[in-house]
Design brief:
Four copies of one chain form a homotetramer. In chain A, 27% of the residues lie in helices and 23% in strands. The first copy, chain A, is built from eight helices and 19 strands. Chain A is globular, with a radius of gyration of 21 Å.
C-alpha cells in the first residue's frame, strides 16, 4: 500500500540506495500554479546535512516528469523524481545478514522472504522525501483555494519541552531554527542536549506539534474517514512515530467533562468555542477552530552502543552500528508531518466539495 | 466513508433513533463456522443498561440477513441487522435547534445543511454496535485460521490507574468486571470514582489498553498501510477517542535509544526481542511479539451542569442536558476497541495471504 | 466485491432464498428529497410475475432502515431492505449436487468450496433488485441536481429487431410495454416470438439499448475511469451480459475514419457534433451529446430440454431443469441496465464536482 | 483515476510530449525474477515505426527506478520510466486552439479548463506504453506462479476477417506478422487494404481477439468485480475501444438457450464444458476453459481529409490534420490488449489467493 489518499492521492516509490525516489500525485485539480522554487525549498527543509542531522549531503533536485503544462497543473498525474546520488551501499554490507534492533530488517525479511538491506531499502526515511513532494503540491493547491495555514514544530526533545504557544509560531522562524523550534530558550537547551547525546552515541525521542489554522468547517468524513482518524493514520505512517493525540490528547484521562467540554460563544455572528480541547474537530469533522495535534517519535534506533542483533541464520550477535546517524528524528520529521497534514487536508477539502 | 477495511470490509449504517443499525461484512472467506451465540455474547458485552452505563435497555437481538448457509459463511456479504426498539425521540426535541458542547451537532449541521438530531443520529455511539458485529465475525474467522488472541481492558479511569500487566488478563474476567478491568483493587476504586462523578453529574476520561497475542509475523503493509497506522485510524474513528499510542507510546519522548531499542534473543530457534518497546510492530509490520497499544477517551460531553450551547440561529444559550448519560466512555469502549482490533487484524491477515 | 462506485457507492447483499436482499448507498449528498413511491415504482418495474417473466410473485416492499430523516437524505448511509417472501427452497433440492450448464453453480463451488444452491444463491438475478434500489436513489439525486434523463429499452429479441430511434422513446411508454419496447410493431412480434419459445421450453438472447440525455460535459475520469470503461464494467456485471458497445460499437470495424468521425458544428453558441458515432463520450469524458450504448444478453440458461449437468462428485448426468424460467433476460434487464447507468452517472457527477 | 487494479495495481503518468511516461506497479509479490530483456521486447512489440504504424521512432528504453534488487522483485513498488525523446511539439502548434473531430481535445478542455494540446497530451496513445510495462511485469509474475498463457491478435481489419482459430495462435508468430495476425492469407489482404487506406489518407476500424489459456478455476469476484466486468473495464479504457464481447458475444442475440448453453463433460476426472460459449467465465468466475473475448476499435480519428473542427473560441473551421497518422489502431493495440489482460489476471490471481 504505497498510495495515500482517496481523492488527492499520493503514490510513492523508491529505495534508499536505488536509483531514485519519486512521487505520483493523482487527483490534483487543474489550473493550480506550480512553483518549482517552493518545491525546492520544501525539499531543502527536509534535507539532511544540517546541524544535528546526518551528514549525507544530496542536492535532492526534483525533476517534474508530467502533469504540469505552461506552469500550471493539468489535472493529469504529476510525477516528480529525485535521484539518489550519494549511494555508499558498501557501508551497509555488514548489515546484509543482520537484523538491527528496532529496525524493519527482520519484519521485511520475514514478510517478503528477502529485502534490500542497503540503508533500510524501502523502510528508509528517504521515502519521506516523496511525501514532502506530495505535501508541497497539496500546499500549492490549498493555498489557491483556501486560507489554510499549517505549522509544525518540535515542542519536545527528550527532557526539554517548550510551552511556547503554537499560535505564535511562524513557519519561517521555525525552519530558521536548527531545532525546528521557535522558542529560543528551549532551542538552546535542545541543542546542547543533542550535542551530549551525539557525543554519547545515543539518541532521544521527541514530539512534533501541529497547528492548522483557517481550516473550513466541514472537512472530514464520518464514520471511518474522520479527520482525526485520517490524520492519525497519516502520522503513524511516518517512520518512528509512536503516538498521536489531538486536542487535549492523553491529558484527557484526568479531565472531567465539565473541564474538557468546549462551550460555545458567538463572535461577530460566527459560532466559536471558548476553549479548543477538541483540537478543532468534533465528531470527526472540522469545526472551524484551529486543528491541533501532536505526534511522538521514538529515539532513532541506530546508536553507537553495542547491541544484540539477530541474524538471517537465526542467531544473535553483539554488534555496533557504524555510519551516519541522527540523535533525533523529530527535527527531520517536522516537514514530513507538515506534508502529511497538507495531504490529508487537501484530500478532505476535495472530498468535501461534493457535498 | 462508512466502510472500513480493504480485503475484509465492514460497511455500517443506521442512526440512533432510526429503525435499525446494521453491518455488511464483505470479503470474509467461505467456510467459517458462524456461531450466533458468540455474536449475541459480543453484543451483550457492549450493551448499555449495566452498572455505570446508560439505562437505555435494548435486547440488541441480531438478525442475519445473508451470507450464512447451513451454519457457515459462503464468501458472499454477511448482512446483520439490529432493530432500535427503545426510541424515545421526544427526549431529544429540546436539542433540535441546539449545538451541544463537544458533540457533533454543529459540524454535521454545517457539513450537510441538516441533521437527524435525535440522540446524535449517525454520530451516536449506537453505531459502534455495528462494529461489534463486524469484529465478532472477524474473530470467528481469525479463530479458525490463526491463534490470534485479542484482549482489551480499562487501565485508566480518571485518577485511577492500574499497573496490572496486560499479559495476565483474561477476556472472561475482564467482561465479568463492571469496570472492564481485571485488577480488583483498581476496579473498586474506579467504581467509587464513577459513583461520585455520577452524583456530581460529571464525567471523566480514561484509557483502554489492548494486547493482541500470537499475531503471526508479517502483518501490515508498508508504507501507508502500516499496522499501527491502520490501528490508529481504526481507534481514532471510535467516538470520543483523543489519542493513540503503541509500545512505549508518548513515554518514548524521554527515552534514549539505548533504553528503548528492542534487542534480539533467540529462543528455541525463534528470534524474539528482549523488550517489546515497539509494541509488536517494526517498520509497520508485526514482528511476532504481542501487539500492545492504548487509546485515550475523553470524558463524555453530556453532563448535568449548565453550559453554553450554540443554536441553529447563530446565538448561544445556557442549557443543561437532561436524559441518560454515562460518566465514562471507556467501559463501553472496551468491546468496540476489541472489535476494531479484530477487524484490522482480519484485514491484514487476508491481505498478507497474497505474499 | 459487492460494492459499486467510488463516490456514490452501492453495496448490496442477499441471496435468492435467504431472508432478504438489500442495499446500502453511501455518499449520496444530503438534502435530496426521498420519494418512496418512486422507489416502489422502480421496484415494481423490475418485478417478476408479469407476462413473459417468471411467475414468482412477491410484493418486493422496500423498508428504509437509515439515511432518511423528515423526507430527505441526511448524507449518512441509506440502507434499504426487501424481504424474500416466496422461498420455495425445496424446488431446488434436486440441484444441490448438480452444476447446471452455463450457470454459476460450478464456479462458486470451486471458488468457495461450498455454495448456497437454492435458486442460485448470491448469483441469482434477485440481487439486481438491490441495484434497482441504488439506481432509484441515484435517479432522485440526479433529478434534483441535473437534467439527466436515462432511457433504456429492448431493441432486439432473438430474430426481432426494432429500428425505432431511441431518441423517440419515453420511459412511461417503455414500461407500459410488456416487452419494454416502444415500437408497437416490434413489440407484437417479440411477444409472439417469446410465446413460441416458452412453449418449446427454450430461451433467446437480446439487446438492451440505452440513451442518456442532457448529460453535462465533463463526466468521466481518464485514464482508467473513462465513462465508457465504467459503464462497460457496470453493464458486464449484470447477470447474463455478453457484450457492451458504445456509439457505433462493433459496427465500427467496417467504418472508415472519414465516415465515423464526428465533425463539429456550432449551434446557438454551443459546440456540438453533427453525428454521434462516439456515443456521447470522447477520450472517456462526456461531450454533451446523448450517451448511447447497447448491452447484449445471452439466452437464459434454464431451459426445459434435457442437458448434461456436472455433479459435485465429478460426473455428468442428463437432467432437465424444472421450475419457473424466463424465455428471455432482456425484459427484466431493462430496469437493471437503467439503474446501473444512473449509478455510474451519479458517481461521475459527484466526482466531477471537485474539478 | 490513473490507477488500475485492486491488489496488483498499476499507476501510470506522462504526457505525449512531456519529459517521460512511466508506470508504478504496487502489489507485485516479492521474489519474482525480473527480466529486463522481456520488458524491452514487450515495449518493442508496441513500438511505432514499423510498417503501417506511425513513423515516430523512439528506442523506448525502460529505466527501472525501484522495486528490483539483485534481479528479483522485493515487494515494494516497481517504478519504470521511459523518456520521450522525439518531441516535435511544434508539429502541434496549429492544434492549440482546435478541437479535432472524435478526439479528446474538447472534452479535456471543458473538464479541466485547459489542456496540454501537444500530441493529445495525456489522452495520447503513448500512455499505453506504461500499460505494457505493467503487463510485462504482471506476465513475469503469472509465468512463475501459474501456467496462464495470454494470446492476442488482429482478427478483423475493416472488411478483412480471419476465421483462423485462436487456439492455433502462437505469440511469436503473431508478433512476427506486421498485421499481428497469424493467418497468412488474411494478413496479406489486410496489408493491401491498409496500403490503400494510407494512400487515401483514411483509416479503418478492426477487432483484436484474445484467448487466455490455462486460467485456473475461481478467478473473478462476484458481484461487481466479475472477471468479464473487469476485463470490459480494462479493454474499454484503451484508446479507441468501441465495444467488448465475451464468448459468443453479440452473436448471442440470435442464439437459443439450447444452442448457447455449455453442457458438461468429464475428461480424465476433470469437469469441462463441451462448448465454450461462455468464454471461460460463468457467473463472473473463471471455469477453467479458455477465456475468449474480442475488442472492437474504431478507425483512428486523424485522417488527411478536411473536416470541421471546433475552436476554443466556440466556432468551427474546416481543417486538415497533418503529421504522422496510423490508418489503423488495432495493430498497435494488440500488445496493449494483451498487457491489460495480464494485469486483470494478475490482480484476480492475487485476490483469489485469500480465499
Amino acid at each position: 500500500m504505497n498510495t495515500f489518499g482517496i481523492t488527492f492521492r499520493l503514490t510513492t516509490f523508491g529505495e534508499s540506495h536505488g536509483p531514485a525516489v519519486g512521487a505520483v500525485i493523482d487527483g490534483c485539480p487543474a489550473g493550480v500554479a506550480f512553483d518549482k522554487e517552493i518545491l525546492r525549498q520544501d525539499l531543502a527543509r527536509r534535507r539532511p546535512g544540517q546541524a544535528h542531522t546526518t551528514t549525507r549531503k544530496e542536492p535532492d533536485e526534483p525533476e517534474v516528469l508530467s502533469g504540469i503544462f505552461e506552469g500550471v497543473t493539468t489535472g493529469t498525474p504529476i510525477a516528480v523524481l529525485v535521484r539518489n546520488r550519494d549511494q555508499r551501499s558498501q557501508d551497509y554490507d555488514a548489515l546484509k545478514d543482520l537484523y538491527r534492533p528496532s529496525h524493519a530488517d527482520y519484519t521485511y525479511q520475514q514478510k517478503y522472504g528477502l529485502r534490500d538491506h542497503r540503508g533500510g531499502g524501502r523502510s528508509s526515511a528517504r521515502e519521506t522525501l516523496a511525501r514532502v513532494i506530495g505535501g508541497s503540491i497539496a500546499g500549492m493547491m490549498l493555498n489557491e483555494q483556501t486560507d489554510i495555514l499549517v505549522k509544525a514544530a518540535v515542542t519536545r526533545m527528550g527532557e526539554i519541552e517548550t510551552e511556547h504557544p503554537l499560535a505564535h509560531m511562524d513557519s519561517e522562524q521555525i525552519y530558521a531554527s536548527p531545532m525546528r523550534c521557535d522558542d529560543p530558550d528551549a532551542e538552546r537547551r535542545m541543542s546542547a542536549y543533542l550535542e551530549n547525546l551525539r557525543e554519547a552515541g545515543d539518541s532521544t525521542g521527541g514530539v512534533v506539534s501541529v497547528r492548522a489554522e483557517n481550516v473550513p468547517v466541514g472537512l472530514g468524513e464520518p464514520i471511518y474517514g474522520k479527520l482525526y482518524a485520517t490524520l492519525a493514520s497519516a502520522m503513524m505512517s511516518i517512520n518512528g512515530a509512536a503516538g498521536f493525540e489531538i486536542g487535549t490528547g492523553f491529558a484527557v484521562v484526568e479531565r472531567r467533562g465539565s473541564e474538557n467540554n468546549d462551550e460555545w460563544i458567538e463572535e461577530n455572528g460566527v459560532l466559536k468555542t471558548v476553549t479548543n480541547n477538541s483540537g478543532g474537530v468534533q465528531g470527526g469533522i472540522s469545526n472551524g477552530m484551529p486543528i491541533e495535534f501532536r505526534v511522538a517519535f521514538k529515539p532513532p534506533s541506530s546508536i553507537a552502543e553495542k547491541q544484540m542483533h539477530g541474524t538471517t541464520s537465526g542467531e544473535v550477535v553483539d554488534h555496533s552500528i557504524t555510519g551516519r546517524h541522527d540523535p533525533s528524528i523529530v527535527i527531520r520529521a517536522v516537514p514530513v508531518v507538515e506534508a502529511m497534514t497538507l495531504l490529508v487536508l487537501a484530500d478532505m477539502w476535495l472530498q468535501t466539495k461534493r457535498w
